[in-house]
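Researcher: Batch entry, complex prediction.
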Amino acid sequence: MMAYLIRRMFYAIPILIGVNLLTFVLFFVVNSADDMARLHLGNKRVTDAAITEWKAERGYDKPLVWNSQASGMDALTDTIFYQKSVKLFAFDFGSSDSGRHIGYDISQRMWPSLALAIPIMIVGLAVNITFSLILAFFRGSPLDFWGVVLCVAMMSISGLFYIIGGQVLLGKLWSLFPISGYDVGSNAAKFLVLPALIGVVSAIGSGSRWYRTLFLEEINKDFVRSARAKGLSEALVLAKHVFRNALIPILTGVVVVLPTLFMGSLLLESFFGIPGLGSYTIDAIQSQDFAIVRAMVFLGAVLYIVGLLLTDISYTLADPRVRLD
Amino acid sequence: MIEATRGGHGCHPKACNLPESSILIKDIQRKIRLLWPQLVLIFAAGFLSACDNAVLNSPYPANAPKQSIFYSSFTERPKHLDPARSYSSNEWAFISQIYEPPLQYHFLKRPYVLEPLTLKTMPIVTYLDDKGNLVSAEQALYTEYELSLKPGIRFQPHPAFARNQDGYRYWPMSESELTDKYTLDDFTEQGDRELTAEDYVYQIKRLAYVPNHSPVAGLMSEHIVGFADFMKSSKNLKPSQQDWVDLRDHSIEGVTLVDRYTWRIRIHKTYPQFEYWLAMNFFAPMAWEVERFYQQPGMESRNITLNWYPVGTGPFVLTENNPNLRMVLSKNPNFHGERYPTEGSVVDRNSGMLDDAGKVMPFIDMAIYSLEKEAIPRWNKFLQGYYDNSGIASDSFDQAIQFGASGDANLTDAMAEKGIQLSTAVETSIFYMGFNMKDPVVGGDLNDPVDQLRAQKLRRAIAMAFDWEEYISIFLNGRGEIAHGPLPPGIFGYKEGEAGLNRELYKWQNGAPKRKSIDQAKLLLAEAGYPEGRDPTTGSALILYYDTTQSGPGAKSLLQWYRNQFEKLGIELIIRSSDYNRFQEKMMKGSAQIFSWGWNADYPDPENFLFLLHGPNGKVDAKGENAANFSNAEFDRLFDQMKSMPNTDERQQVIDRMVEILREESPWLFGFFPRAYSLHHAWYRNALPHLMANNTLKYKRIDGDLRSQQQLAWNQPVIWPLLVLLGLLILVLYPAIRDYRARQRRAAR
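Model: Structure tokens for the complex:
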């Protein structure tokens, strides 16, 4: 397995270079260094001299990817792409174009994101699996039919509706939870209940339908029939045989997102005022802060690769027949 | 088999040889089964009694509402808190409470009047010739401002001032000494010192120091003597100590220190508007120790910078800066104790604005601004009483405001019942649609007077047809005033009523302006050579282009409305939507044809609006703020004359003529002046809108007891829906459980 993991890590290097190059190209197709300077310096009374100074100070006065004025390796290295990208591979994200240390900001903002994302994932998984197992148990009955109808209805509603509806109903009309806000330490709990509840409820429709399909696929297989024939109760059959064998596709969906949990949720964090990483990249794109954009895209790519590796490893745990060679 | 398993539950513990602990557990389980209905009732009763006289949805600690804390929100994180860099209203909302420039605006007087803030008196202004002799303003080659500071003002406590027997406690520091320091709170010792004139001089040098990227450096280099030279030489300045460039070692010719409390600023010729700049944060004092402290190696990589931790002499200090969550301002223990103004109008007295006259400010101990990116939660929290004030988003407008028969805006009954109060004020801003005068179709050939006249008539015809009244009604909920010229109300030169009527587009009828008919616009268009809007060269509808950053479904109705306005004349308007960068590029290159733009006043002087149409300030040629690239010899000459004049009748006449030129030439469709609507709760006092001053937090007062009562009354938790939901769940689960048991029994058979 170790050889497999090392091989996969080496595969990741060209992927990361490609992602970085693509981000760079896409960003600079839309924004020029002058645009970035103008936006950072403000709209009023910005002079050309100030723009030139800003670019020079941050290294945006160099050629993008090829420096025809330089010789040898400098032609490649004395460019914006090289200067801004190479340190990423050492996870040195440097400073944003507005001067903030990106690594520190990420380390501060990831905790609120995790505080929200982890309960949503765990509770959501438990609720969805339980609900879908119930539907599978009562398959073909009116309960199953109306349960599926409910799921379809719930997955047809926009996430924004859940958020606004939840805030108005539970926060405003019933006055049970703060509408938005956040605090540090244990005081954060009262602010997290409502967004976590909404996060869980909004995902019940799609999650439960998906898991129900997986369980129904397993439920008619021979080994399940054998289990029943041995006299096991239906609850035990579902929990021990059906659920266990449906774990592979569930793990595929769950483990891959584990490392990216701390990247946060844009909508939930925006509406509930949670100071997480959800809007960090979007804000950076809007303010044309290339330093943050490249750092976050790079980090996202790394985490996704890690997530895929973890998924592979989890298969071996869930199914002893799987070997990573 | 199932029966056998069930039998286990009935077997006597001792007979089954179960351990004592298991017996105990079983006993507890049995008791719980018997008692659970009572437990649920006890829990519910406890929950309900806990909810009585308590609020569950408060985002603040329990005792917070009674305290003298101002609660508000902000939508966009401030980028710069350095007074040399900051130039946005969302940044000034914070730093204006911390930094103190020499002058400020009087809180109550209208029109806006400057008064000393940290100065003993207003600056002493003298006019000089090239030899330094006193001359009249008309003959002046230089104007000199002498500013005298009140003694005894102290900076807020800060680690940069902390001393020990060897000198400064936190300077010099190596990077290794910063290993455990990530915020300013990690520096445990603090100090302070008296504010001196040198701190103001130091800040002016900071404006000129190129690496600071001050947005006003270009403008100040045109006015302050020696400023431009300092800018050039500052690029080559080398750090004297660690990474810090000690600007005290370098001087600007026109900025001189007279004594500990006095300094002089000399500017070229005359520029009366300079005093307004002295009321802005750019000219607030900066202690050199503070800049030296922040410039130490390792500080920036830890985000400990002047941009993040401002240091001033004002009524408040920034005690928490987490713009992703909240910003907290607390009372500055060293504040010099300003008093609430005692002069005001009769209206001010009647509205209670003078109730606190003469009292020592600030009245509040703390201001907490929470980040609220979305309008809906922000609005709902205001209605719950958790924010003391609020703007009104379009979505909430109908909920908050209703218009009376005479068109005046009033609060809805629901708002009035809560004691919410409304403040409105026409902003000193203008939103207009501009023509690029360098465009051959709408600007005309600069060398051909006939073509110039054609283009002028075309522009005026469009201006006549463009129904801004409808725009304000549809897209702004009535929150705007029609602009008959570039000067908004409250600015010298603005004329009200019939005297201020744009007679090119309106007539005065029944005591009100009435837009001229579309037929007259068509007639003008025909005179321009476009009968029925047809382009004589093509024979089909004249095509014009509107450049904008707006696009997508959200902008569809607005852009269609724009098209409709042109269609009234038979002109086809093509919308060219592009992103912000491309739009800016088009404006810079002069390739846009028609565009929308706005301007927010820096200071209440007509020069700050009329310069937007001053020829030498053109965007294409001079990268200036004249986005229309308008150039008119008479207008430019009058502008040069007007900008240095005091506010006299003579100046008014010059302005009148300038405005007339603009109405005839019509480089802008004047558009509208936005009207700001803001709401505040009854416990929020002294909430007078001030469109020029940003340092108004010190005037505000909070009645904590009233707020606490109202929050309690408005936020009583409603429990019954939860019980109904629980009941519904049981109703669904009960048949399911019964069915499950039935199936299990069937399986046993």
